[in-house]
Amino acid sequence: MSKFGFKEITPSNWLERDDVLRGFVRMSSDGQSQPITGDEYLRDILRPKLLESVPTDVQALFEVARGAMAYSYFFYPLYTLAAEQLFRVAEAALAHKCNALAAPKSRDSFKKRISWLVEEGVIPGSEFVRWDAVRELRNIASHPERQSIFTPGNAIGFLEGIAVQINSLFSGT
């Protein structure tokens, strides 16, 4: 472990599983802990999909974030970078939806776009808190004071949740 608390990449270790991941296990049906394999991480990361109706630009942003998350197996902090990128992908999806619906130009921030889409009934009022939480996380990620580190479970949970949120914006189009 380095002075930073995470793997320092070297020519000899860059294609090796990050040792931090040894601390994460799955429980088997008989109560035994088993290491999570790279294939299992990859399966979980590839499971969430965006609908074809989601704009191609947003799909591309999502795939880059998901790709970075897949390579987190080799460099654990990529889970965090990928999750932080997902917060920006969600913002881009909102901007696309607002543009498609000809939102007023005054709706030019993440928060204002969320509010407008709730007012218009595109986002159910019950989902405002979830979208606003993504906005807050995006703000924290975009203005860091120190390095954050998310667990694989947190990052994959963000991937799954944001895929659902983005799909809900474009499911009726």
Considering DSSP H and I runs of 4 or more, what fraction of the residues is helical? 40-55%
Total number of beta strands:
2
| pLDDT < 50 stretches | none
How many helices does DSSP assign? 6
The end-to-end distance, rounded to whole angstroms, is 49 Å
What Rg is obtained from the alpha carbons, in whole angstroms? 18 Å
CATH topology: Four Helix Bundle (Hemerythrin (Met), subunit A)
CATH architecture: Up-down Bundle
Structure, described:
The chain is mainly α. It has one domain: Four Helix Bundle (Hemerythrin (Met), subunit A) (Up-down Bundle), CATH 1.20.120. The chain is 53% helix and 3% strand. The protein contains 6 helices and 2 strands. The protein has helices at residues 38-46, 56-70, 78-100, 110-119, 128-142, 152-170, and strands at residues 25-27, 33-35. The chain has a two-stranded antiparallel ribbon. α3 crosses α4 (110-119). It is elongated and about 55 Å long.
